Amino acid sequence: MNIILIGFMGSGKSAVGHQLARELGMDYLDTDEVIERTEKTSISRLFAEKGEPYFRDLETEVVRTLEDYDNFVISTGGGMVLRGENVRLLKEIGPLVLLWADAGVIHERVRKQTHRPLLKVKDPRAEISKILGKRAPVYKKVADHVVNTDKLDVDGCVKEIKEWLRSR
């Protein structure tokens, strides 16, 4: 079994994913890192040079390669579950755990990061609210479990996921 972490940028997928994998004795994979290694460039540069649709196609290609993976915690890009095909393929390999955070919390977490292509706008806080508003219904619809990370540190998130896994 795998555990797939979904959610918006800044929700904690990478930090929680690394620690969760360590504590459960699983391997860790970040789909954005796979894309960057394969394409030999950053996500930010891919967005700038080839556009978001090209990047979303790459995400789907990565998901298609995961069918034989087992015993992984997989962190996905924030927009990964916007495509139904990606959701279907991911659900075949493990449960989807949504790491949720409100727009204000996300903005505080990512406001100083320069590698976020969706935030290269005049008002990043408003952009976060707008995108999160559109994605929230999708995230919550496809998630098998939701962890609100607003007031939890990494340890608290990992503990909540482990408790949910034991109760399944």
What do these coordinates show?
This protein has 168 residues and is α/β, with parallel strands linked by helices. The protein has one domain (3-160): Rossmann fold (3-Layer(aba) Sandwich), CATH 3.40.50. Helices cover 55% and strands 12% of the residues. The protein has 8 helices and 5 strands. The protein has helices spanning 13-24, 31-39, 43-50, 52-64, 84-93, 103-110, 124-142, 154-167; strands at residues 3-6, 27-30, 72-75, 96-100, 145-148. A 5-stranded parallel beta sheet has the order 2-3-1-4-5, with helices on both faces. α2 crosses α4 (52-64) and α3 packs across α4. The longest helix has 19 residues, at 124-142. The protein is globular. It starts with a strand and ends with a helix.
Provide a quick synopsis of the model.
This protein has 168 residues and is of the alpha/beta class.
Shape: globular
Instruction: Tell me the CATH topology.
Output: Rossmann fold
Order of helices and strands: EHEHHHEHEHHEH
Total helical segments: 8
Report the CATH architecture: 3-Layer(aba) Sandwich
Distance between the termini: 13 Å
**Strand percentage:** 5-15%
CATH homologous superfamily placement: P-loop containing nucleotide triphosphate hydrolases
Strand order, sheet with most strands = 2-3-1-4-5
The CATH C-level name is Alpha Beta
Q: Note the main sheet.
A: 5 strands, parallel
pLDDT below 50 for ≥5 consecutive residues: which ranges?
none
Q: Whole-number average pLDDT?
A: 94
Assembly status: single chain
Radius of gyration: 15 Å
Give the helix level as a range of percent.
55-70%
